[in-house]
Design the sequence.
DNA sequence: GAAATAGTTCGATACTATCGAACTATTGAA
DNA sequence: TTCAATAGTTCGATAGTATCGAACTATTTC
């Protein structure tokens, strides 16, 4: 695994985060992470989408600071950066996930 | 003024709205509308930005259903579609505006 | 009518997204 | 310890989107 750019908490930017969430695939990934906690790339979006495209989407989420990656063997476990997001933008993630999944 | 596409309340899509807000210029426009109520194109973003670019940004906000345009003479007054947004995505706009303007 | 004003549309260039193919890295077995 | 399988990234080509100046449209005012 290469050096992955990961913005510090204090340099999280709201437009970048909203942009990252403003795509159907990425928003679905985020809502799944919100309910499931941690997912590998392969099952983060288990639909017919090429893995190169999925990798691209996860990179955008990472670089925006929405998700964190933990490598374990050959699996890359993705999870939401809940604490950092909550600290910088209180209530944002919860509100978006709430309205994204109307139940 | 031509026919302007304007999505109905029920067809507002969350990814499209987040995408529209996921740009620094457009997010600034929205926070200004949130505090000032209604603004014309020209003063929605009173910085050095070409008016063709500004027009493009406002179109994206309109087509995502974030703002509404009212023509009065040769001025186009833009305002947030607060009620529609609140009905479809409760708390979303307020939360985003709150965290966008940290005060 | 002509000039001024508010904003849109057009067209060219630059940037970003998608997806198959090739690549890297780790695991597990022969 | 080499080989195959697996998980994901990177590359490269094509398609789509953004930016901004220039031209255009519509409305007001003189």
Sequence:
């Amino acid at each position: 695994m290469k050096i992955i750019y990961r913005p510090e908490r204090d340099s999280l930017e709201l437009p970048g985060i909203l942009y990252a969430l403003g795509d159907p695939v990425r928003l679905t990934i985020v809502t799944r992470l919100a309910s499931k906690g941690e997912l590998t790339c392969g099952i983060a979006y288990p639909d017919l989408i090429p893995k190169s495209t999925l990798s691209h989407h996860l990179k955008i989420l990472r670089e925006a600071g929405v998700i964190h990656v933990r490598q374990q063997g050959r699996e890359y476990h993705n999870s939401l950066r809940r604490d950092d997001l909550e600290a910088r933008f209180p209530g944002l993630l919860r509100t978006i996930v709430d309205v994204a999944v109307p139940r």
